[in-house]
Design brief:
Elements lengths: L1 H20 L4 E2 L9 H15 L3 H14 L10 E2 L17 H14 L6 H14 L9 E2 L9 H7 L7 H9 L5 H8 L6 E3 L22 H10 L8 E3 L11 H7 L6 H5 L4 H10 L5 H15 L19 E2 L1
Parallel strand pairs: 2-6
Antiparallel strand pairs: 1-3, 4-5
Bound molecules: protoporphyrin IX containing FE and 2-acetamido-2-deoxy-beta-D-glucopyranose (8 copies).
The site of one 2-acetamido-2-deoxy-beta-D-glucopyranose (NAG) has 3 residues, from loops.
């Protein structure tokens, strides 16, 4: 309990400091210009999730990819006629949930035309995806505006690599003003969702060129992945959290702790002293409240990355406009 309280105090202090640095976003930014918009979004998502609960993972990841590439400005939504937008960075990027954001945008436009940004809808949707997966329900900051520049090259350079170690990942996060704590906490988003074989199968096929597998993996887990993902299998998916794929909980950290981190970047967390200490703390069921509090803080931090506010950017009627 003492450590729980300590984390909470640290969390609140950190978020207060950060909010002084960036006063442009605020809670309930639309309270007068589009009252009730957060309820509208949440109600629409309730229906979407009732039909497909797995899309929650997609929406959480979409906000992350948006924020890491040119800031949280909905540029991930933009389409390109010549295939050079962020979303074209890797044909098998496997992001999902675009159509959910667009459908909600239609409802929001009907209530308040040209007031609420796509970027804010994405931040709300990520928050609601976590809440409806039995995760923390935090207050989301709003007031972002949308960018209309979306370039494949930015996505290739700014997103963290799935085979990165903590040194590499820390650098990628630092460029976004995010700390090692944010890195390990936000990796906890992998408590939801799946990865396709090509994202990790190099770990079980000929890892160092002698027909071997990543020695860091728990052997039976590696064997199962090897059986599931033949080298030419691009389509099969495997849960990122071996315990509870669809529930926002400590199952991801328990997996990583046990050598069953699916991605190289997941497993890497337990091999660094700082992030490893967090993984082992989170391996204890009594740490759930700490994880929830930390996750809320780090999501708010991520939601501030490179935002456009005030008169920068635009509010557009359709998120997935075609540029170029
Ligand atoms: C630490 C750096 C990170 C790396 C290297 C990474 C990489 C990946 C990869 C490779 C996948 C699987 C893609 C596929 O094969 O289909 C994935 C899935 C996912 N990522 Fe991450 N990720 C990172 C951080 C994050 C963060 C910060 C979030 C959100 C806050 C996040 C949320 C998700 C979710 C929810 C999924 C599952 C998506 C689905 O089921 O459709 N990831 N990530
Ligand atoms: C409502 O919005 C206005 C302008 O964005 C802001 O100044 C005010 O603090 C907000 N009030 C509440 C209760 O959030
Ligand atoms: C992408 O996936 C498809 C099948 O879903 C596969 O045919 C293709 O080779 C993959 N491309 C890359 C670059 O991995
Ligand atoms: C992390 O990966 C980078 C790039 O592959 C490498 O240069 C570095 O030595 C690695 N660091 C550790 C601690 O393994
Ligand atoms: C493993 O990699 C080595 C070196 O690239 C290669 O010579 C060998 O044929 C590979 N083995 C398999 C089973 O793919
Ligand atoms: C889990 O954490 C609680 C509270 O901090 C502690 O009392 C307990 O010993 C821990 N359990 C394990 C297995 O580490
Ligand atoms: C990081 O913080 C600095 C100082 O507050 C700010 O100028 C910069 O725009 C931030 N970078 C991102 C990507 O948010
Ligand atoms: C991009 O947004 C700016 C405002 O920030 C606007 O002047 C410009 O016309 C927009 N361009 C496109 C292609 O929508
Ligand atoms: C795609 O279109 C953009 C904008 O018109 C242009 O700058 C870029 O060079 C084009 N890229 C390719 C590969 O055609």
């Amino acid at each position: 309990m003492a450590s729980c309280t300590r984390f909470l105090i640290f969390a609140v202090a950190a978020s207060l400091l950060a909010s002084f640095a960036r006063a442009d976003l605020q809670y309930d930014f639309y309270n007068t210009s589009c009252p009730g918009v957060e309820t509208l979004v949440r109600d629409a998502l309730t229906e979407v999730f009732a039909a497909d609960s797995t899309v929650r993972a997609g929406l959480l990841r979409l906000h992350f990819h948006d924020c890491f590439v040119r800031g949280c400005d909905a540029s991930i939504m933009i389409n390109s006629n010549n295939g050079t937008a962020e979303k074209n960075a890797d044909p098998n990027l496997t992001l999902r949930g675009y159509e959910v954001i667009e459908a909600i945008k239609v409802k929001v436009e009907a209530a308040c035309p040209l007031v609420v940004s796509c970027a804010d809808i994405m931040a709300m949707a990520a928050r609601d995806a976590v809440k409806f997966s039995e995760g923390p329900d935090y207050l989301v900051e709003t007031g972002r505006r949308d960018g209309n520049v979306s370039m494949m090259a930015d996505a290739l350079s700014d997103l963290p690599p799935a085979d990165g170690n903590v040194t590499v990942l820390t650098k990628v996060f630092a460029v976004k003003n995010l700390t090692m704590k944010d890195l390990v906490v936000l990796s906890g988003a992998h408590t939801l969702g799946v990865a396709h074989c090509p994202s990790f199968s190099y770990r079980v096929h000929n890892y160092t060129g002698v027909g071997d597998e990543d020695p860091s993996m728990e052997p039976e887990y590696a064997e199962g992945l090897n059986a599931k993902c033949a080298p030419d299998n691009f389509a099969s998916v495997v849960p990122l959290d071996t315990v509870t794929t669809n529930e926002f909980d400590l199952g991801y950290f328990q997996s990583v702790y046990a050598g069953k981190g699916l991605l190289g970047s997941d497993d890497a967390l337990r091999h660094d002293s700082l992030t490893g200490a967090y993984v082992s703390l989170m391996n204890n069921a009594s740490s759930l409240d700490t994880f929830f509090a930390d996750f809320a803080v780090s999501m708010i931090n991520m939601g501030r990355v490179g935002v456009l506010t005030g008169t920068d950017g635009e509010i557009r009627a359709t998120c997935g406009i075609y540029v170029d």
